[in-house]
Write a structure and sequence with these properties.
about 220 residues, two-stranded antiparallel ribbon, alpha+beta, three-stranded mixed beta sheet, single chain
């Protein structure tokens, strides 16, 4: 079974900025390229941090409105005695949460959810930026054709991995939803079959009506039905 990796779905040509890139230039790049964040890279494209739309808005939210009123209770940067954020180095989140090219998509999605980010820079073993992966990229496997999903389940899972008899199970796929019907020897095989088929790229959901010859999960083995 072959699972797609970050390298296969990521964007390889990445819009980046340097630590000295000004605020307005970062804003222009985000709008022009319709992206929500840019990696900040140093020499040899080593990842230093990430500047997002939220970082820009967080900085501007400290400014007073036209009548001189502040939007919240936070003090302006200058009132705190701190320099105002003018460049990527001032604005960026660092260290940046990143992914690696060999990560599987489930691992990547969990990282995005845990860190509450929409995209992850992808770095190699030397911390050099090699791409960027977004939530939209993680959805690409769900665009797989139903026939390709069915073929992978039948050949890679049921035949090559589980070595089931060719006529043991029937596989139907519609809109990424898999339906398994048939009969196997042991009841304990069913959860394994479901787990492996469910993990195939592009599977949205799985329903099964699989019968079994005997219940090897029970304390007393039942006679064949």
């Amino acid at each position: 079974m072959q699972h797609r990796t970050v390298f296969e779905v990521m964007t390889h040509r990445v819009v980046t900025v340097s630590p000295g890139t000004p605020f307005k230039e970062i804003a222009r790049l985000l709008v022009e390229h319709e992206i929500s964040a840019v990696p900040v890279v140093g020499e040899d494209r080593r990842l230093l941090g990430v500047v997002s739309e939220a970082d820009l808005l967080r900085d501007t939210s400290e400014l007073p409105d036209l009548e001189g009123r502040r939007a919240g209770v936070r003090l302006l940067s200058r009132e705190r005695g701190l320099p105002e954020a003018e460049t990527a180095a001032d604005l960026m989140t660092s260290p940046a949460v990143s992914a690696q090219p060999g990560w599987n998509l489930v691992e990547t999605a969990r990282t995005m959810d845990r860190e509450r980010v929409k995209r992850l820079p992808v770095v190699d073993e030397t911390s050099r930026l090699v791409g960027i992966v977004s939530r939209a990229d993680l959805l690409r496997p769900f665009l797989r054709d139903d026939t390709a999903i069915r073929d992978e389940i039948e050949h890679d899972v049921l035949d090559d991995t589980l070595r089931l008899a060719p006529d043991a199970l029937r596989v139907a796929v519609s809109g990424g939803v898999v339906t398994l019907t048939g009969r196997v020897d042991e009841r304990a095989d069913i959860p394994v079959i479901v787990r492996l088929c469910r993990s195939v790229d592009g599977v949205v959901a799985l329903h099964e009506t699989i019968d079994y010859a005997y219940d090897n999960l029970a304390l007393d083995v039942e006679p064949p039905r």
